[in-house]
Write a structure and sequence with these properties.
heterodimer, A: 4-stranded antiparallel β-sheet
Chain lengths: 114, 112
């Protein structure tokens, strides 16, 4: 089954404790992206990657890092989480150069930073 | 990408057609209209897209006005499971950046 998986689905942590949220897709997609969703602000893009070893900032990259060492994986790293990073996070993937350009989203990771 | 305007909320009776409007008066010639929906805190789901012709798939129909300044997503027989936030997004179809800019969307409530 074609899917995007994220782990963990729920995480409660404390300020400053490094964490990684994993994202994996099995559709051989070149493009992967991370979004965060906050009430009243909608979905905002954090980082994206057009292919292996190619990453770029989205609209709200501060406080986050990403890596793309393999095509299927795109982890989101919070080196020193702060309470303002409490949010619902979504990973997405798609092919590129396609008009249909359907993005497949993961189930979400709800992060709480105390 | 062009800006879109959608009503914040709509109700629809179960079994009836749900017609969700979207205004995109600044759309340019190479921009497509995409629709996604998000069912309560799940990941957004692609529904349909179109350029200027009306489109239909197994989920919905998309009607785009001749001047392309507005469009309507039609769910022909809404069910309770169609309760969700529906997002209308305008962007270049093969945009290498691939970013989707989600606005506020329309919260559709399907009622029994």
């Amino acid at each position: 089954e074609a899917q995007v998986t994220q782990n963990p689905r729920y995480l409660i942590t404390v300020t400053g404790k490094k964490l990684t949220v994993t994202c994996s897709q099995n559709m051989n997609h070149e493009y992967m992206s991370w979004y965060r969703q906050d009430p009243g602000l909608g979905l905002r893009q954090i980082y994206y990657s057009m292919n292996v070893e190619v990453t770029d900032k989205g609209d709200v990259p501060e406080g986050y890092k990403v890596s793309r060492k393999e095509k299927r994986n795109f982890p989101l790293i919070l080196e020193s989480p702060s309470p303002n990073q409490t949010s619902l996070y979504f990973c997405a993937s798609s092919g590129i150069g396609l008009v249909r350009n359907e993005q497949f989203f993961g189930p979400g990771t709800r992060l709480t930073v105390l | 990408d062009a800006k879109t305007t959608q009503p914040p909320s709509m109700d629809c009776a179960e079994g009836r057609a749900a017609n969700l409007p979207c205004n995109h008066s600044t759309i340019s010639g190479n921009e497509y209209v995409y629709w996604y929906r998000q069912i309560h805190s799940q990941g957004p789901q692609y529904i349909i897209h179109g350029l200027k012709n009306n489109e239909t798939n197994e989920m919905a129909s998309l009607i785009i006005t001749e001047d392309r300044k507005s469009s309507t997503l039609i769910l022909p027989h809404a069910t309770l499971r169609d309760t969700a936030v529906y997002y209308c997004i305008v962007r270049v179809g093969n945009n290498a950046g691939n970013m989707l800019t989600f606005g506020g969307g329309t919260r559709l409530m399907v009622k029994p």
